[in-house]
Amino acid sequence: MNLHRRQIIGLALGAAWLPGQAAGPYPSRPIRLIVHTLPGAVSDTTARAVASEMSQVLGQSIVVENKAGAGGMIGAEHVARAAPDGYTLLAGGSSVIAMLPAVSRRRFSYDADTDLQPIGMIMRTPYVLIVNAASSYPTLQALLAAARARPGQLTYGSAGPGTNPHMLFEVLCQVYGVRMTHVPYKGPAAAQLDLMAGNIDALFDTPSSVIPGIQAGRLRALACSSKERIAQLPQVASFTEMGQPQLYLEGWSALYTRMGTPAEALDALHAAFKTAMARPSVHAAVVDTGNSLGQLTGDEVLAEQRAMRDKWRRIAQERNIRID
Fold first, then answer.
1. 67, 40 in Cβ contact below 8 A?
2. Bigger pLDDT: 9 vs 223
3. Contact yes or no for 32/65 (Cβ under 8 A)
């Protein structure tokens, strides 16, 4: 090979690796979707349904990866540090996007408002207060009476400090004047297993997670955090219905990518997300399991997360609730 030919080949290879070189229309390779919960959680199953439909629209596979831990911060941090190219997405829940930053003393390595670009809201979900069906707590009043009789001895689980279920219990204990002990887990599935084993006394979890256990006679529902009763659990009264609107809380999950992602990629993601949310498979994954479809996109999600953060920061300050 002569010198001139080697120079031409070298220049061509070098050009192929120039930073910022266009790689063709988006998406030109598979996309990663980070879910900050363990497999099987409602945020995981709904994210997978949306990813499956979006991949058909985009013509590229979307690979779902679970990165749980630290109340969901591990997964959120991973996407906040990713390249802003649209190839790393996050199914971000309200616990890690809004609640934790509102009530925690932790130092966060990311800012959800400036590091993460919302595409759209996937779903909203209330929480159901459950106990072991074999327990001696047939009603909410029975659970509260036991907690008053044995301060600090009854236990409740959550997916981690500062998550929505944890904060619900913090407010519940203050509203009803009881003291219970928090037992954090890496995910709600592990907490529910311990509840059924009799190792903890109570738990807030999502409808899709608790309905099978209730129907099988292993779990008992005492109340729910929505404003109205859940269609799949018509026998379960809401706290709002009981005169305790302070205990209204609906969590949500939304699709994000890295802030600074090019407009071409954002437009493609928005269009694919809108199409996916209208598909029957997504409706089944969300609505048929006791949740509701998210109706917000882009800046509307940003406004929602800011409003939730402000509300719960105020509640935490008023009730002197701070999470280490």
1. no
2. 223
3. yes
Q: What are the strands of the beta sheet with 292-293, ordered from one edge?
A: 62-66, 31-35, 88-93, 251-258, 116-125, 292-293
Report the distance separating Cα 294 and Cα 122, nearest Å: 5
The whole-angstrom separation of Cα 23 and Cα 113 is: 28
- 195 close to 154: Cβ distance less than 8 angstroms: no
d(CA 196, CA 4): 75
Confidence at residue 23, expressed as pLDDT on a 0 to 100 scale: 55
Note the pTM of the prediction, 2 decimals.
0.83
Mean pLDDT, residues 50-54: 98
**Residues 20-31: what's their mean pLDDT?**
77
71: phi > 0 → left, psi -120 to 50 → alpha, else beta; which? left
Query: DSSP letters along 292-319, please?
Result: EE---BTHHHHHHHHHHHHHHHHHHHHT
- Of 120-124, 179-183, 268-272, 320-324, minimum mean pLDDT range: 320-324
